[in-house]
Amino acid sequence: MLQERYQLAYKLYPYERSADQDQDTPVRHPVVVLGGGPIGVATALDLGRQGIPVLVLDDHEGVGMGSRAICFAKRALEIADRYGCGKPMLDKGVVWNLGKVFHKEEKVFEFNLLPEEGHEFPAFINLQQPYFEQFMIERVRDLQKDGVPIEIRGGNRVDSVTVKDDHIVLEIMTPEGPYKLEADWLIGCDGASSPLRNMLGYDFTGKVFQDSFLIADIRMKADFPTERWFWFEPTHGSGASTLLHKQPDDIWRVDFQIGWDVDRKEEMKEENIRRRLDAFLGDSVQYDMVWSSIYTFQCKRMEQFRHGRVIFAGDAAHQVSPFGARGANSGMQDVDNLGWKLGMVIKGQAPETLLDSYNTERIHGADENILNSTRSTDFITPKSDVSKVLRNAVLQLSKDYEFARPLVNSGRLSLPCTYDGSPLNSADALGGPARTRPGSPCPDAPLGDTFLLPMLGNEFTLLTINADAPDTLEESGVQVKRVALSASDDKTGALKERYLGDNDSAVYLIRPDQHVAARRPSFDETHFRAAIRRATGQE
Amino acid sequence: MAFLNTKPNIDRPDDFYAELLSAHDGLNSDESQDYNTRLLLILANHVGDRDVLSQALAAASQKRE
Ligand SMILES: Cc1cc2nc3c(=O)[nH]c(=O)nc-3n(C[C@H](O)[C@H](O)[C@H](O)COP(=O)(O)OP(=O)(O)OC[C@H]3O[C@@H](n4cnc5c(N)ncnc54)[C@H](O)[C@@H]3O)c2cc1C
Q1: How far apart are CA A492 and CA A404, in angstroms?
Q2: What is the pLDDT of residues A442-491, one digit of tens each?
Q3: Which residues of B touch A394 (CB under 8 A)?
Q4: Do B41 and A389 touch (CB under 8 A)?
């Protein structure tokens, strides 16, 4: 009845019989999340912490084996930290700053990422995806003890859905047979091949790249430096390009570009993987194989992420090639965006149309990610003669001339997108720094012993810098609290640089997902009340 | 916005042309293509201005607007 589609790394939510299975009429849940991958579990954390009962269904009983994502960017970590599980990720993860680029037999240049100071979280960490998921599920378990209404049911496969006017009916298969449930809202986080999308007949279109990569995670005690190596056209014959990355626990990720017409079974044989690894690392290096897989890559998305009461997030809604690490990272931003909006709609604090802004803003985000990851893919795996000539000219020049180095694209760091043009933004009345214009994710800043982002929290906030405002404000059912800062809190000047620019003071209206909704030099009640209505879809 | 200079701007044009040609001496057509591409990137960086580069890209395609 229930078949494992993949091997588990950790069994974290074993099947248990639910009382729902013994009811004569299907039990209704406010929110059902289909899929207990990173994005489904994050959705549960976001909603559960708002006090909204949420049920996660997954056909497996835990986290899949094999690492897949290894690069988690600052924004995803900041979101996880808001949910209470960012610190363990940071403690476990590997931080690197030095990258080396090789072409043919030689190193062409190296770069230091020189991260900007004054952020609690680094630009990104390397961490195996199963750890990322495990830390989130541990957080769920802690919150459950405090009565936070999250439930995860493993061994629950959703086989069919029927969409009604005001709810959805789900048919679920378990090891003990089928049962039915109803949901007011259904969130599809069931991954890139989303059965939900297929059941409902929604398209998933875009570009498939005619190439494939072989990944090997190996354990190596050797004293290899914590650097990222990207090797274009290595002459040692390991592949058309090769990438080496460090992960925690002495594990290294090696990616080999192996072409499109490959015999997968043959390539996956240990002796063949070892042949490539030995060619790359040299014969004398000892290692154990931990996990390997072959992946092809594509950039695709759904035309709409919201279909009434069915909403898609994560890989189910959009898929990118892995270069630039935008898969899980952008899925976390989907959750961040959707969580507070759905919460307000369910609590009756905002009209249902607020959810359409999830669609607009996250499609904007997905398109930006697809654009970036397509460009990296085109550089790494040039598909025409001329694109290869250009690519190689850039690489050749980058050895001697600094100017060519920024053109080398072996994956661009995943940065959160600014929701320019979003219907929730109010016009910029400050003219402050561009990076904090309305629609921007708030950049962190150090404030003595603490940082800015944890102070902003999960609610609508008025951030005042050298400015007056009421300590709380209520508008159309939305509660806004004030966070008051002044020049004396800003020992490093980062707050001024990031939020004031040439202005002496500023007042920011910040959304629960820590994106800027409005900003002005001082508090003006009429304008900010209008901005709150606008940011909650009430204007 | 800066504009692409399409008026004569190279001093002693015959000398320049000869120098350009001789740079390809002894190169086969693949090597010549590689050379031209490197040259293009070096010059493009020197220009730098994105508007001018876009105008140059359009001018080189020889499609008349
Ligand atoms: C090689 C590789 C490298 C990557 N590197 C990175 C990286 O460095 N950084 C990054 O951010 N991203 C990376 N990604 C992408 C990242 O792995 C995905 O974006 C991420 O896993 C998506 O999470 P998700 O929760 O949307 O989907 P998934 O992780 O696919 O989870 C979907 C869940 O739904 C469940 N499910 C499916 N169907 C049903 C059903 N009918 N009933 C019940 N449950 C169901 C599945 O069991 C699964 O648990 C990489 C991907 C690959 C392949």
Answers
A1: 34
A2: 999 999 999 999 999 899 999 999 999 999 999 999 999 999 999 999 99
A3: 41
A4: no
* Residue owning tokens 């939510």: A13
Domain ranges of chain A: 2-94+123-203+300-368, 434-535
Does B65 have pLDDT greater than 80? no
Burial class (CB in 10 A: 0-12, 13-18, 19+), B36: middle
Domain that holds residue B33: 13-61
Ligand 1 neighbours by CB, cut-off 6 Å: A 34-40, 57-60, 68-71, 129, 157-158, 189-191, 195, 215, 295, 314-316, 322, 325, 327-329, 331
Average pLDDT over chain A reads 94
Q: What is the Cβ-side half-sphere exposure of residue A168, based on CA atoms within 13 angstroms?
A: 27
Residue B3 is assigned to a structural domain of this protein? no
CATH topology of domain A434-535: Glutaredoxin (3.40.30)
The answer regarding whether domain A2-94+123-203+300-368 maps to CATH 3.50.50.60 reads yes
Residues 6+ apart with CB under 8 A from A367: A301
Total number of domains constituting chain B: 1
- Put simply, whether A397 touches B (Cβ < 8 Å) is yes
Beta strands A8-11 and A62-64, pairing class = antiparallel
Kindly state whether residue B8 falls inside one of the protein's structural domains: no
For A408-457, the DSSP string reads --S-PPP-PPP-TT-TTPPP-SS---GGGSTTPBPPP-EETTEEHHHHHT
Interface with chain B: mutation pick from A103, A104, A108, A390, highest number of B CBs within 10 Å: A390
Residue A1, pLDDT score: 66
**Tokens standing for A71?**
């690069």
ipTM of the complex: 0.95
